[in-house]
Amino acid sequence: MVFDDIIIGSGLSALAVALGLPQRRRILVFAGPVDGRLVEYAHIRGVPCQYLGHGGLGNYWHGVIPSPAAVAANHADGRDFAALFAKFYPDAAKQLDPDAPALFVPRSPIRPRPHWNRLLKSRDMTIVPAMVSAVEFAGTGASVEADGRRYRAQRVWCCAGALGTARLLTHSFGESLSTGFVSDHVIVSLGLVLREAGTAPVVRRGADGYVMKPLRNGEIDALLVSRPARFGFARLDGGIERRAIFGLPTKSILGRLMKAPDPGLVSEALFNKFGLFPKAARYNLYAQLRVRDAYTLEPSAERITARPEVIYEATDRVREAAASLVPSLEPSRRPDLYIPGIHLHRTIDQGAAQAAGIGVADSPLRLSDASVLDEIGSAHHSFGMMVSSWNDARTAE
Description:
The chain is an alpha+beta fold. 27% of the residues lie in helices and 27% in strands.
């Protein structure tokens, strides 16, 4: 069967490609198996690193969107960001300045499935619940194989995620395309600070969600944010292990809160989700940082293994820098604890892929997900990746 475009994957990047493609294109989307399966980090149970099924990890994304000015490694200019942002959050778009550092926390995160349903009604689009097993060049286009059938298109967009795209491309073109590693964001608790230290969060709420100014400093390569510390959480490392639930899918967080309510945990959860009650006497200071090659990767099995020495080297640098920047910081006594950022990236060697004719200008095989994303910066990359994918599809010949 022949299509104009085939999109492999159905997560946030895949959705952005579909939104960017011209209205006239005939599109086939491979959404993953019908019986979706959540894959967790092997070394930290309960935290997801992949979803095999319709919507991908976008089904569990917390939805935090940094403005371009809040991202050191900016993948989209302010105009592109503003145009796509307005499609999802029109009210917030009137107030969010792309040129000012800010984190937008939506009331309702972008979920791929409802948007796919709307596209099905307005576009010449077919969505197939299947996994693609191979991809190759075919004449002036490309072809994919899924469930024993072959499909051809003028262009094929690989949007299967950092692990899925690595598995597919190394199976189809050889292991040399893999970096052999996976990079990630890591979140750590730095400790407690007093309100007088100037670290209190500045929050502005609106109809679509709230905007918070990050505690960004050019001297530290990390995204710093503070959270009100109340009840047991106002003690150093109080409830620190319970905070790990904030790396879980939203439904899991609510389930944990309902089963074992903790006043400090509930208070922090209300701030995280709605920006409520930002003023407190003390604050927990967190850092999100990019850790290059945080895991080793076996592409064929989509298996990753943590490299603790690499992760701790990166987090220790941030802890030392934060201690000098915030003299009143009472540092955490648990530097061994961290939460994976659920932002896996850089699994495909971009140079090797381009040498194979993949992802270059006019190539029928395009890479449009985090598998080739290298300089991700310290902020959340999901929406920036969407902007990049959307723009790629809009400008493709």
